[in-house]
Amino acid sequence: MRRLTDGRDLPGKTTAASARLKSKVLAVVAAIPPGRVTTYGTIATFTHATARQVARVLATLSAEESDRLPWFRVVAANGLISSTRLGAVGRAQIKRLRAEGVSVTARHKVQDFDAVVWLPG
DNA sequence: AAAGTGACTGACA
DNA sequence: GTGTCAGCCACTT
Fold first, then answer.
1. CA(A58)–C1'(B1) in Å?
2. Which of A71, A70, A77 is nearest to A50 (CA)?
3. Which residue, A118, A115, A30, A45, is CA-closest to A75?
4. Largest CA-CA distance found in chain A, in angstroms, rounded
5. Strand B nearby residues, CB < 7 A
6. pLDDT tens across A20-54, in order?
């Protein structure tokens, strides 16, 4: 892997700090129950990181990891699906959420967000 | 080393 | 309620 020709990702560095944060983030994401969602900010607080960092971790997941983890249960603040800007990926995320019983509005916002949001702990 | 970019957020229109 | 704009932080060029 290392790098994709379209310019994006897979840091070859893999610093110790990043690896530690990544482990924590992955642990939290893996713990999200089906049919529930959580936000980048929540994970960020829980892992003592920033939302951007969490987002980056998920953005740099390997194919196997993204397949193993329910990353689609992670949404932006207010239950908004921010990854819609990725086009196909965002669509897939919404599709999978709906398949789990999570309704998403036409504006890409999780319906009854307060009811389906999940807090780690 | 400086400038550009983005799975984000919070404030404002 | 939705749509934009401006900070943020870490990474890439």
1. 29
2. A77
3. A118
4. 41
5. A 39-41, 51-52, 54-56, 58-59, 61, 66, 71, 76-77, 80, 82-83, 85-86, 89, 93
6. 899 999 999 999 999 999 999 999 999 999 999 99
Residue A48 and residue A23 in contact, taking contact as beta carbons nearer than 8 Å = no
C-beta pairs of A10-13 under 8 Å, 24+ apart in sequence? A10/A60, A10/A62, A11/A60
What pLDDT band is residue A6 in, cutting at 50, 70 and 90? very low
Q: Which nucleotide is nearest, taking the CA of residue A14 and each C1'?
A: C11
pTM to 2 decimal places: 0.88
